[in-house]
Design brief:
Blueprint (H helix, E strand, L loop, with lengths): L5 E6 L2 E6 L10 H16 L5 E6 L4 E3 L4 H4 L4 H19 L5 E5 L2 E3 L1 H8 L2 E5 L3 E3 L13 H9 L1 H10 L3 E2 H6 L5 E3 L1 H16 L3 H14 L4 H17 L1 H11 L12
Helix pairs in contact: 1-3, 4-5, 5-6, 9-10
The structure holds acetoacetyl-coenzyme A.
The site of acetoacetyl-coenzyme A has 22 residues, from helix 2, strand 6 and helix 4.
């Protein structure tokens, strides 16, 4: 598939997906969702990709939300379909077996905050802005915002953001636990790549296990989450990467992780 609304490139095991509608501040329409799904297919199939970074083209926006000009003419059934398609796409992103970093270089509003929250963590530039402003349009978030935001920042803060529709800057987003780290705009990309390279050097099996245990464990009770961890722990210990990591330690050398998932 030729992409018009995103740019997807892979270099040295790091996939970079850029939302590419800068004139519309990278707003999400059906075509973006289709192309995003196609790129996720590619990431799933290409075992050489060890980390994925999502960012926005241009210097103003990560994603300024779902495309209002697209949504305004849809019927209720079409709108439910659009919302579900967005949600399913974000579930796919969240369940990728590799780490996914949101590199937020500007506005991340509505669907933009929702996409960033489906990534494993968020690095933001000092001039990034977050929010769920749907209430100002007389609507509500539709790509999982009411659900992921409350899980990340707590119910009261999620209600305040979704009910007032206010924008918060990157510093405040970090204070409430939405954003992991904030960098000056000219350092954001470099710092994101630095972390991506660190992640790419880790064992793929154990990265997937950490992600699975934290993601799936979050929605079950503590004991079930811990049992899930025991299973993953045993699998990692006996995986080629696990054996290599522990042998390398005992032999006092750096491990070389191959990343087999078997
Ligand atoms: N949908 C469609 N077009 C959008 C857009 C969006 N979400 N956000 C920005 N654009 C377009 C603008 O219409 C404008 O296009 P034109 O040049 O053709 O007029 C262009 O991008 C530039 O935007 P502005 O001129 O508005 O730029 P600004 O600097 O004055 O303001 C902004 C920037 C504060 C981000 C403002 O554009 C804005 O408020 N955008 C809408 C944000 C929003 O409400 N997002 C939520 C959408 S609903 C949603 O996401 C639901 C969901 O959960 C799935």
């Amino acid at each position: 598939m030729n992409y018009e609304t995103i740019i997807f490139e892979v270099q040295d095991g790091i996939g970079v997906l850029k939302f590419n509608r800068p004139k519309a501040l990278n707003a999400i329409n059906e075509q973006v969702l289709q192309e995003l799904n196609d790129a996720i297919d590619k990431v799933e199939k290409d075992s050489s990709i060890r980390v994925l970074i999502l960012t926005g083209e241009g210097d103003k926006a990560f994603v300024a939300g779902a495309d209002i000009s697209h949504m305004v003419n849809l019927t209720p059934l079409q709108l439910r379909g659009f919302s579900r398609k967005g949600q399913e796409t974000l579930f796919r992103l969240e369940r990728l077996p590799i780490p996914v970093i949101a590199c937020v270089n500007g506005y991340a509003l509505g669907g933009g905050t929702e996409i960033a929250m489906a990534c494993d963590f968020i690095y933001a530039s000092e001039n990034a802005k977050f929010g769920q402003p749907e209430i100002n349009l007389g609507i509500i978030p539709g790509f999982g915002g009411t659900q992921r935001l409350s899980r990340l920042v707590g119910k009261a803060m999620a209600k305040e953001l979704c009910m007032t529709g206010k924008m918060i800057d990157a510093k405040e987003a970090k204070e409430i636990g939405l954003v992991n780290q904030v960098f000056p705009p000219d350092k954001l990309w470099e710092e994101t790549m630095k972390t991506a390279r660190v992640l790419a050097s880790k064992g793929k099996v154990s990265l997937k296990a950490v992600k699975d245990c934290i993601e799936r464990g979050f929605d079950v009770d503590l004991r079930d989450g811990c049992y899930m961890e025991s299973d993953a722990f045993a699998l990692c210990m006996t995986s080629p990467d696990g054996k290599e990591g522990m042998t390398a330690f005992l032999e006092k050398r750096k491990p070389e992780f191959k990343g087999e998932l078997e």
